Automatic annotation (TrEMBL):
Domain of life: Bacteria
Taxon lineage: Bacteria, Pseudomonadati, Bacteroidota, Flavobacteriia, Flavobacteriales
Keywords recorded for this protein, A-Z: Membrane, Transferase, Transmembrane, Transmembrane helix
Glycosyl transferase family domain location: 212-371
Gene Ontology MF terms in the entry: hexosyltransferase activity
TM region(s), chain numbering: 83-103, 109-126
Database matches in CDD domains: GT4_WbuB-like
Name the record gives this protein: Glycosyltransferase family 4 protein
Length: 387
């Protein structure tokens, strides 16, 4: 049985797209008869605090469904202070180096990037002639950070570019979640072995339903991270509610701002449901008419994994983020598009949608598209040939 190690910064019981992506990869490879182990920090995301059940531990190793999971210490922080965020990444990198010194590492290793510094640590300390290093790139850093306003074009940015270049150079195979990511890497390393690995979900889809929380209005739902990049607080302030009810699930930096806005505007049809488990969320989502996927700014290389998850649920999408995600929605007829950052156009599109277009026939059609084009196991079998 071939051994494979996955190194990631996010893993259940943490929630979110990054955690789900690596969990599905690990369990999928295990079902394909790989002996899988995972290295990840003690759970701390998204609040930036070690989960209560793991506090006081330096390291914990468990076996879950035959997958060995090593959880390592880090200085947890989700602070906006860049120094504290850097310390958090360095602390995990130091824990990784310590682990590498005292444990035998398999000859096949998949490394998640970003964070760039964590990936750099793995590429620097694990490169061997007999070892295959696979870099799984889910977002393009530092480019994405520049577009989000987190970085400026200065010495730090240039240093991060050098780290990014080093990581690509040392990788034997690079997995990219979008064609934009692969195009970018190919401009730097034309001969590098690349593989398009989308964030397709792997779950048993619930039965689709036409149940709606309001018989007259269109029920619109957002579920996910309530961070700066998604701009849900601004969305709450900018939506035209004449024809819709808006429901929100998730947690993140803007959470309190959203709660305060709802409290200060009790007549607006906005409901915040908090954070729920993924299974509970799926059962809730199928009761809504339409989901919205927003990005405050178009981010090169980014394709929200929600596109594929909602397609499997049969849930029509209003996409408000531009880029490759917009291309996917249009190509596969998954819903409606609004110009990124243009709230006037967003409201115009919402007003143009007829609730009758959101019924069982549309949902069944979307699920068939997901089965044909976004199948996790088909993609995994193609990846298996590369490992």
């Amino acid at each position: 049985m071939k051994e494979i190690l996955i190194i990631t910064s996010y893993f259940p019981p943490e929630t979110g797209a990054a955690s789900n992506r690596i969990f599905h990869l690990a369990t999928g490879l295990e079902k394909q008869h790989f002996k899988v182990s995972v290295i990840t920090p003690l759970p701390n995301y998204p609040k930036g605090e070690i989960f209560k059940a793991y506090r006081g531990k330096f390291k914990q190793t468990t076996t879950e469904n035959t997958i060995t999971i090593h959880r390592l210490w880090l200085f947890a922080s989700n602070s906006k202070n860049k120094v504290l965020r850097l310390i958090a990444m360095i602390s995990y990198s130091l824990s990784l180096i310590w682990f590498f010194m005292w444990h035998k590492i398999p000859n096949t290793v998949i490394v998640q990037s970003p964070p760039l510094l964590v990936a750099f640590t793995c590429m620097l300390f694990l490169k061997r002639k007999t070892r295959k290093l696979i870099l799984n790139v889910s977002d393009l850093w530092p480019i994405a950070g520049l577009e989000l306003g987190a970085f400026k074009m200065n010495f730090t940015y240039k240093l991060l570019e050098k780290i990014e270049y080093f990581n690509y150079k040392k990788a034997d195979l690079i997995l990219g979640q979008s064609n934009e990511i692969l195009t970018h890497i190919k401009t730097l390393f034309p001969e590098k072995d690349l593989f398009l690995y989308r964030n397709y979900p792997d779950f048993e889809k619930p039965e689709i339903t036409t149940k709606s929380l309001n018989s007259k209005k269109i029920t619109v739902v957002y579920a996910g991270l309530l961070g700066m990049a998604q701009g849900i607080f601004k969305l709450c302030k900018s939506l035209d509610y004449a024809k819709i009810d808006f429901h929100i699930y998730g947690a993140g930096a803007e959470q309190q701002n959203i709660i305060d806005f709802i409290s200060e505007n009790p007549l607006l049809p906005i409901t915040y449901h908090g954070e729920v488990s993924r299974e509970e969320l799926h059962l809730a989502l199928i009761n809504y008419d339409l989901t919205i996927i927003p990005l405050l700014n178009r981010i090169y290389g980014s394709v929200p994994s929600k596109i594929f998850e909602y397609a499997k649920l049969g849930l029509p999408v209003l996409y408000f983020g531009g880029g490759e995600g917009e291309t996917l929605i249009e190509k596969h007829h998954l819903g409606w598009l609004a110009d990124a950052g243009n709230y006037k156009h967003l409201n115009s599109v919402l007003q143009s949608i007829d609730k009758q277009e959101l019924g069982l026939e549309k949902r069944a059609e979307i699920q068939q598209i997901a089965k044909a084009h976004f199948d996790f196991n088909t993609q995994l079998l193609a990846l298996k040939e590369k490992l």
